[in-house]
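Q: My collaborator sent me two sequences in one message, no labels, and asked for predicted structures for both. Can we handle them in order? The first one she listed is below.
A: Yes, handling them in the order given. First sequence, followed by its structure tokens:
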Amino acid sequence: MFELIFLGTSASAPSIKRGLSSLVVKHDEFRFMVDCGEGTQRQILKSGVGFKRLNHILLTHGHLDHVLGLAGMLSTFMRWEAIEEVNIYGSRHTLDRVSDLINGVVLRGNKAPMPLNMLEIKPGLIFQSKYFEIQAFPVDHRGSSSLGYRFIEKSHRPFLSEVAEALGVPNGPCRRDLVQGNAITLEDGRVILPEDVLGEERPGVNLVVVGDVGKPEKLREHVAGADVMVIEATYLAEDAEMALTYGHSTAADVASLAAEAGVGKLILTHVSRRYRDDDILAEARAIFPETYLANDFDQFEVRKLDRME
């Protein structure tokens, strides 16, 4: 399961009710921030997410409405927060701009008190843990070397709590060992094997996060079959020419992509304040009914079995 916490959902400039682009993706103890627009650290505090373990920052591209909040947040990390290290992931084009911001404005020749790692990434596998991996893919947006991210949960066998209870397996380390594939011996001498308490293998959740995109039809192979896709919807179809000029998408564009790529559910973000929320949703849902519009501080749990809470 992945948990999404939207910190900023506005396009280009903040509005009264929407901050600039930022999203947190959680999986167990891991936290990944996707983009860090101006004012993100205040949104973190208001959301209750907090700064703990928020040390992986994935950047879609280097435009200021997606990176400018890094200056304030890193400044706070360096003065007050016990962050052991910060890892910033992005294309070379993106990291060049972020380096100017951090080294030229925040540090100004000083050394950060914690390791500050600028990790240049290219399309392909960029992160892997025991339970999930992250892949990057190219996104077309005004020559910015943009990247999208696919979070892929590995298949797993669910722990059958009721079966374990009936067998007398106590809570705590014994159950953890069984989940990790190790047999245990109970106090009465009975040996319990992992297959005794684990169900049939299930595929994991597949989540796609895209920032700004000018030609969403090019993403079809990269987002195909995703359980949930998060993507921009800056314009409505009535302003399609403006969207094309500025390298953005309409709600209709990304809804069509979701339908053609076999996406399970669609979450829209990066929306312009020139439109009413109801109009954005109506345009997308006319093409792809399983569409949701994210607001600041909205939280979604992304699960298998066609469920999103």
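Q: And the one she listed second?
A: Here it is, processed independently of the first:
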Amino acid sequence: MKVSVVCGSRAKDKDLLLRFFEMLNLQTFTDFDVNIVCDRKFSEVEESDFISFFQNQDLEIINRTKFFTNNNSVFNPNHWWWASYVRNFGIQNVKGEFIQLFDDDNEVAPDFLENCLKKREQKTSETKSECVILPSLYYRDTNQIQNQWFSHFDYRQSRPVLHLLNWKKEAQIQMFSGNWIFSKASTLRKAEYDEQIARISEDLDYTLSLHEKWVQLRVFSDFKVIHHERDKTRLEQARIGSYSQAKQKARNRFLFTKKHWNKKQIFQFYVCWLPWCLLRLSTKAILFGWKDRFKIIKWLFSWVREWYKLTHNK
């Protein structure tokens, strides 16, 4: 098999996943299989009913689809953080020479996989280096591009720095926010999604880890992925969500910095970012999460106690 499509799914919204299959069924390039990693603890009856629903659809692509579940594979439904574990599992268990990562709420044009292969061959030949092909991500059926291309990480402000394509058709970047990645399977296996880094930052860490292994990340304006993202609460939009998510967000920052810093960057992180971030996120917790404000602030200040352990434990 030339290409393996890998898609993690909660396996609860059948209509959403059916729309995903219908999109794949229209691809002009056909030498690919589909691998759905079901992040849900199925009973055998639930699994059978779920898979049968798709097998009964009049879609040729289903014949090239494998569903990985806790019943038919070594998938662990009790893992800590779903996104990183699911993607690692998919990358390691598929058979294709190339891998295309998707989410089940994605939509692409019929020639998407065909163009990914052509673009990867062209750029690899030009640069004499292995290239990861990345798309432009659009929010639902709008012309709004979600922020996803980053030139580097600013440790002073503890945030990735946006790289705007503007009039350019492509750019080489260091980090990518999203999981719509096309590359040779052996290239993606050079790094793993860090299962300690969860929610928001795991994709940034993974692509930066690939970059650090001298893999080129190339983003293109003419590769379009439509992201049918669910609606988020104001608290989620403030990038907190709940007090436990606030704690994980802080943990992400420490783990990310520990993994990628140099001496100058660690100084910038602790002297510049940490003090004002505690104040800023505490204010957001009060404004957008009044009900849980004390829990959120409690976890925010627990960073100060945890940073030493996180940065000194190997």
